[in-house]
Design goal:
282 residues, alpha/beta, TIM Barrel, two-stranded antiparallel ribbon, 11 helices, 10 strands, 16% strand, globular
Length: 282
């Protein structure tokens, strides 16, 4: 299918499907990546899965992909997320496997064909820890694969070269990458355009997000509105074109208090770089 431009639902901090619809319309978009966990756990109320999807559908909003979070993730510091992120912690693995099974079934029912998540900091060196993570990620890939769903690992918590090695070790056709250029800057894991050139054929979806690097090693960089950070957007889109990759682009904004405005700013950058007329077909 042709590329679509949308937004990550959590970026708009919606209180209900109706709130999400209103903010999507204000941003000038008609598709999104949807956070699945609120729908998976809701037995009633605003985010009950069938009702939420019906509301979005009736408003002409297409859900292009899903996202799942992992239990126990602590983003307070780089050190804390390295310990708690993704499927690495033994203490949360059973919960995360159960959540993945629920999200896979939900994605199947909702006809969502891609779900993305953070795998966790993948060790650069081969060894027991990496072997453990590869086995867990392969199990998740098979859970989603049985439901006819692809999975995309979010970039940033390891270098592109390491991620490519792990993808080869997992060896599943439904496994690829959700490419986030800002995360590579935030985590200090390499230059985004070079990483995209390396990962291009394995990218299932890309997040449109920008950031500036930290000036103090061991700490976070800063997420900023698209076009004001260190991402080379001309180089980014050139790398996608070189890879002949027409994946969807989902705008993500996780900081600031003017989310709709910042999403519109990002949309203008994307449309400019793709040569689209503002407000044109997406």
């Amino acid at each position: 299918m042709s590329r679509r431009i949308g937004v990550c639902s959590w970026s708009l901090q919606p209180e209900s499907p109706a709130d999400l619809i209103g903010k999507l319309q204000a941003a000038g978009l008609d598709c999104c990546q949807l956070h699945l966990d609120p729908l998976r756990v809701a037995k009633s109320g605003a985010w009950k899965a069938e009702h939420a999807i019906d509301e979005l559908h009736d408003a002409g909003i297409e859900v292009r992909s899903g996202m799942m979070g992992m239990h126990g993730e602590d983003y307070s510091t780089l050190e804390s997320i390295a310990k708690t992120g993704g499927v690495r912690p033994d203490a949360t693995w059973k919960d995360n496997l159960a959540a993945a099974k629920g999200n896979a079934e939900l994605a199947r029912k909702l006809r969502i064909t891609l779900v993305t998540f953070h795998a966790g900091f993948l060790p650069h060196e081969r060894g027991a820890e990496r072997t453990k993570l590869v086995a867990r990620l392969r199990e998740l890939a098979d859970v989603f694969g049985a439901a006819g769903v692809k999975v995309g690992f979010e970039t940033g918590q390891e270098k592109a070269e390491t991620l490519l090695e792990v993808l080869a070790e997992i060896d599943r056709p439904n496994v690829g990458v959700n490419f986030d250029p800002a995360n590579l800057i935030l985590y200090g894991m390499g230059e985004p355009v070079a990483a995209l050139r390396a990962l291009g054929p394995r990218v299932f979806q890309a997040h449109v997000k920008d950031a500036t690097p930290t000036t103090k090693p061991g700490t976070w960089g800063a997420e900023v509105p698209v076009g004001t950070g260190a991402v080379d957007w001309k180089g980014f889109f050139a790398a996608l074109r070189a890879a002949k990759n027409e994946c969807d682009l989902m705008i993500e904004r996780e900081a600031g208090n003017e989310r709709v405005h910042d999403v519109r700013t990002a949309l203008a950058v994307v449309e400019r770089e793709l040569g689209l007329a503002t407000g044109g077909a997406r």
